[in-house]
Write the structure tokens for this entry.
Amino acid sequence: MGTFFSRAILTAVFLTLITSLSAQTPLLPGKIEVSGNTHFEWAVSDTNVSRYFENWTDLFLSKGAFRLGLRFEAHEPPASFASQDSVTGFAHRYLEFRKGGLYVRGGNFYSLLGLGLVLRTFENRTLRWDSNIDGLKVEFRHSLVDLQAIYGKPRKTRLDITELGKKNPASMGIRLPALAGGEVKLKPLSSFSFGGTYVNTGANASDVTDEHSQRGSLFGELNLKPGSLYAEYAKSDYPDASLFGVDGEAFYASANLFWGALSLSGEYKYYENFAIDDGLLNNPPTAIKEHLFTLMNRHQLIQNADGEEGYFAGLEYPLIQGGVLSLAYCSTDNLQGNMLYEDLYGQFEWNEFLGAEWTWAAGRQKDEAARYYNFVNSTHYAINDAYSLKFVYEHQHARVSARSDFTERQYYDQLVTLGLSKAPAWTLSFLGEHSTDQFAELDQLNPDQTSKRKHHYWAGGQLDLKLWDRIDLSIFGGTRREGKICIGGVCVVKPELEGAEVTVIARL
């Protein structure tokens, strides 16, 4: 715990430095511009598993076409949130040059080839995901062609249990074998482009061969006034199928059609043996409806690009003045034809009803374990030009199937958020949740491992402040339920909280 608080003090020093610089002219001798930001999250809880400390502090020095970037990180993550070690030190450093259509960056960088079938490395702090590559990236943009070339070693975002807990872990993380690749995109017409991607990597190479696996894709995109179309086909090739399994194949297509006020959209995916290094190095499109409401988001699809096929269909239409109807359906099966995930969703937004903005949503989600019925009401009412009220009510009924790894049961969850805001200075919110799930909490258990309580409650208050146009401060106090968070098919379990949580984002 001493280390925990020492990192908190260290972050406070960095935060003080950033905020003090914000009041000064951001120039060094030689007209070098200084900028930076810090992101700090700290939770103190009665529950050991939900105590955590996270900090990302960036410093940028710029002069002309050059920019130097440094990032200091300090992490004491909760055990259930992400498979990462506790580390302190400089995690990113890079030098970049940008002039006209040329961009060169040496050091840590991220890359997207195509739409992520072949390669997508990215950072998402909500998911505690950072798959940056340490190496060299060169891009060239022109009216007729876009080029990208990369080389480097990717960071392993999720560690195996044997890799955790080692003494003095590297602040830049464990690195996967080097990869090299790139993308060529030709743009003969303003409405049409096509190209290809390629990556050669040792991430899946065996101990008995130095041959590297390789993968590539071809893609095309058409954008016209009535709509748009995108398609990408990818293949992966392994030098020894007996060691690595069969070669992989992936296909993704999306289309949008605009007919007057009506908007139609559709997606199709087919992924076979295409989770590159267990999905750490690519993140192809999910072809599902991404939910922002908490209860529905907890039960979204966890992507498995090694074996899934599915589609998405969506519709939007303004039924009345100020009122828009949205409908969506998506389904994903494994390659044996068994259903993995299904979602039927409808939403109506009306911004001219009783002087408030309303959103009503209903849906049905289904996965291998359970079926969920959902209902949401969201109301935003402007009291005057400065003050406003927001009320969100979420209700979910679950029926869990009887299986060897699940107990057959029915329950419902309810979530309420009530907030008062004074724009743009502050928001004060109450957050409460109620559940009748017998496994909602793992204390006070019966002999059959179910809870002795029929009703479970979590409640807390949150204050969000904007200070000096440079600092966003969020303070939460109370209890919060453990729950899954999903973005783009990547999911983590956010731990329960019994105590306080502070988040600070400061910008220079």
User: Anything to note?
Assistant: The helical segments are 2-21, 241-244, 294-297.
